Amino acid sequence: MIGWEDVYKVVVAMAPLYVALMLGYCSVKWWRIFTSDQCDAINKLVCYFTLPLFAFEFTAHVDPFNMNYLFMAADAISKVLIVIVLACWAKCSSKGSFGWSITSFSLSNLTNSLVVGVPLLRAMYGQMAVDLVVQSSVFQALVWLTLLLFVLEIRRTRNEYDYDHDDDHSKNDVDRDLEDDQNIVTGDDHSRPSFWTLTKVVWMKLAMNPNSYACIVGITWAFLSKRWHVEMPSIIEGSILIMSRAGTGTAMFSMGLFMASQEKLIGCGASLTIFGMVLKFIAGPVAMAIASIAVGLHGDVLRVAIIQAAIPQSITSFIFAKEYGLHADVLSTAVIFGMIVSLPVLVGYYAILEFVH
Q1: 122 contacts 153 by C-beta, under 8 angstroms
Q2: Integer Cα distance of 209 and 114 in angstroms
Q3: Transmembrane ranges (predicted)?
Q4: CA-CA to 305 of 20 to 30 Å: which in 185, 208, 220, 343?
């Protein structure tokens, strides 16, 4: 049963995040320390250095031979269900779009399990719940955040091509001919690239992005170290830890910088804030409940599966949204307000699920 001491542990885990957030916010809003370009540079530091190293360090220390693969299957099925719904919405609805499908997937599926989920679920269901939350975090980092990065890169690459094609109309007649003559020779007559050509370009870009393989390298090391009982050399581990320990803090600091650059504290408005909360605290858990029952989860494992799906928004999803220019205001609001309202929501789920057998 959850007591005040358990609630205090959750608050203790969350409070430092808001300290980093406020420092970032104040440094731009009131102290005027950073310019807009410097804020973008800080976000790139987080995106390409601290978060990949954090992901590697985290996944490198798990035990891949001791996982609940039925739980992992339920998690995968729940996310596939949401992907199918979003794909149908984007294809069939006049209001559907590729960009909003990506954001909606992030809002409904990607969680900040380690900061909020671990202390709270430990109080609810003990060490078993912590193990499941950690496994879910590994699977999220390895599969779903990598997939998110892939579709964001596809979107940006496609938009860059469209921009270059549109920009071609602004050239004068002489510059445009010269180019047409060259394009005839090279075979580029401004046709939209095929899916495979686009995919090749995206993979080349992802090869330069450490986020796309940090978790893969980490889980590979985890397999090797657990199988043959080898330890990472201390000089390498120390080099990784010095940056990875700053991952969550610098991510929240970057979010504070972004918030300070907005005209309003809630940059996306009340309606989108509510939309994000509904996806996070209702759509995600409902999809997880359906998938968990379908694969045969029951008892406390079923309860943990549903509750962990309602854990607040992943901070990494905001960093990616900011880097790729896709609804960063919605994701930042989801992270901040999600962590504020998560405690009563998760306790409410806990109380309701006590009646589920």
Answers
A1: no
A2: 24
A3: 12-33, 45-62, 68-90, 102-121, 133-152, 202-223, 235-260, 272-295, 333-352
A4: 220
> What's the distance, Cα to Cα, between the start and end of the chain in Å?
17
CATH of the domain at 287: 1.20.1530
Torsion, Cα of 304, 277, 148, 115 (10° steps): -50
For residue 219, what are its two tokens?
Answer: 């889980």
Strand partners, 313: 111
- Does 164 map to a domain? yes
User: Domain range spanning residue 147?
Assistant: 4-168+194-353
Residues whose CB is less than 8 angstroms from the CB of residue 296 and which lie 6 or more positions away in sequence, other chains included = 70
Token pair in block for residue 323 = 């880097």
Determine the angle formed by the axes of helices 98-109 and 69-92, rounding to 10 degrees.
Answer: 150
Q: Is the dihedral of CA 177, 183, 189, 191 positive or negative?
A: negative
Please report how many Cα atoms fall inside a 13 Å half-sphere around the Cα of residue 76, on the Cβ side. 13
Q: Count up the domains in the chain and report the number.
A: 1
Whether residue 59 is contained in a domain is answered as yes
Nearest of 213, 212, 222, 211 to residue 59 by alpha carbon? 222
**Whole-angstrom distance, CA of residue 56 vs CA of residue 217:** 7
Q: Do 272 and 100 contact (CB within 8 A), yes or no?
A: no
Residue type at 116? V
Which of 272, 256, 263, 277 minimizes the C-alpha distance to 337? 277
Bridge partners for 111 per DSSP: 313
Pick from 100, 126, 122, 101: nearest CA to 113: 122
Q: What is the pTM of this model?
A: 0.88
How does pLDDT run across 93-149, given as a tens digit for each residue? Answer: 888 899 999 999 999 999 988 888 888 888 889 999 999 999 999 999 999 999 999
